[in-house]
Amino acid sequence: MARVGPLIMSVVVLIGLAGCGGQQKQPSYQENKKMVLDILKTDDGKKAVRELLKDKEMRGAIMLDDKAVSKTLIQTLTTEQGKKLWQELLKDPDFSEQLAKTMESENEKLLKQMMKDPGYQGMMMDILKAPELQQQYLSLLKTKPFRQQIDKSIAELMATPLFKKELADVIVDTLKKEQEKQK
User: Fold this and answer.
1) With helix as H, strand as E and coil as C, how does 30-85 read?
2) pTM here?
3) Who has the most CB within 10 Å: 20, 82, 98, 174?
4) What would you measure as the largest C-alpha separation in the chain, in angstroms?
5) Which residue has the higher pLDDT, 41 or 63?
6) CA angle, 137 as apex, 130 and 100 as ends, to 5°?
7) How far apart are CA 99 and CA 77, in angstroms?
8) Dihedral over alpha carbons 78, 84, 88, 91 (to 10 degrees)
9) Residue % of the chain over a pLDDT of 70
């Protein structure tokens, strides 16, 4: 912060000197603005700005509130130029991945809410009933890896004690019914 003072003081002195000089005319606003911007573009000027931004009080003074940020984002990103910016950003795989990670939990919540919505459920059913999609499902069901997986799942199910007991109960019930019919 100690360096900021001399820089600002230098800017003020330069502006003051430019304004003094009896016979010389006062610099215009544009000339003053150009002079200040030129000073800020120097290494000392950049260093002074960095030091200003490190100061907690200064950062607090320039922070925007949530409403201002939201409004600016909406106004910027909904324009044609904003749409083009999004398209370019989403082409970058790193950006897309980070964006997806950031939004993952919110998207999951949204999807769970939508799954409870009858209108959304109806749209999903319409999609699943589409003839092209049904054809793809049938093609998938006919593949060897899928059939192998089904066989494996059935074998695992049949090996469970609960399934064996239920199967035995069904066989016993069926035999009892057959015996009753024969009597």
Assistant:
1) HHHHHHHHHHHHCHHHHHHHHHHHHCHHHHHHHCCCHHHHHHHHHHHHCCHHHHHH
2) 0.32
3) 82
4) 133
5) 41
6) 80
7) 15
8) 80
9) 84
Report d(CA 89, CA 95) in Å as an integer.
7
Tokens of 165: 């007991």
Distance CA 183, CA 173 (A): 16
**Cα–Cα–Cα angle for 18, 21, 22, rounded to 5 degrees:** 135
Burial of residue 39 (CB within 10 Å: 0-12, 13-18, 19+) is middle
Structure-token pair, residue 3: 């360096």
Nearest to 44 by CA among 69, 76, 94, 8: 8
Cβ pair 89, 83 in contact under 8 A:
no
Residue 176's identity, in one-letter code, is K
Both tokens of 97, joined, read: 């991945």
Cβ pair 14, 35 in contact under 8 A: yes
Token pair 């912060």 in the structure block, residue? 1
